[in-house]
């Protein structure tokens, strides 16, 4: 599979402030790419044939594409909001489908069992009813009115709170989470999952955050988010099947899986099938 419609998407491949001086080899949709700095100190990304690929520097990362994107990179207005801390978390390589990585990020029900006493705890395991839609005007998947009790919703949290969430999927391998900001009631903290598809069964995940937090050190905020994702990695690397099934009959959904169902439907609608298990003919 060569990526099809996914070749024309934008993907993160490096942290802008940490461009490798001597260059770094990587993969994108199974094809080799090389990331380096040019003579001006800016980013330069080439494919295996030496072709210079388009780039965008935004949200702390360098983005590129193997194809010809028809649109600019999706907007995150909060990135320009005064008072926010912009956090480049780093990257983690994961042996899982890039689509599985996004789906796991959208899953609320696993909080008490995987992130025990941090993002969830027993007996607070019930997922309350929430709303999901595919917004045709922006062509994105959105989940709203999501609420969940969390012992420590963020590094800045001082005790347990009922956290409100919104989830947004603006591209096949990126998801944006808006959640209650503990130090700033009425505002949303923004936590993103930017995924670079290396192959259909491996990916590199580049989390990024835009937070209201005047007390925590940058190191503490990075370590907190890295800890959360490392807890997820063992789950992701043991999922069966490895590819994300797009046939709704392959896995049994529950009410908590409404966002995942919409995400799979949206992927199938657009032919975003790199890393997916297709319906048997």
Automatic annotation (TrEMBL):
Record's SUPFAM superfamilies? Bet v1-like (SSF55961)
The Vanillate O-demethylase oxygenase-like C-terminal catalytic domain, residue ranges? 94-269
Q: Coiled-coil intervals in this record?
A: none
Statement: the UniProt record of this protein carries the keyword Metal-binding: no
Gene Ontology terms, MF aspect: dioxygenase activity
Q: Which UniProt keywords apply?
A: Dioxygenase, Oxidoreductase
What name does UniProt use for this protein? Aromatic ring-hydroxylating dioxygenase subunit alpha
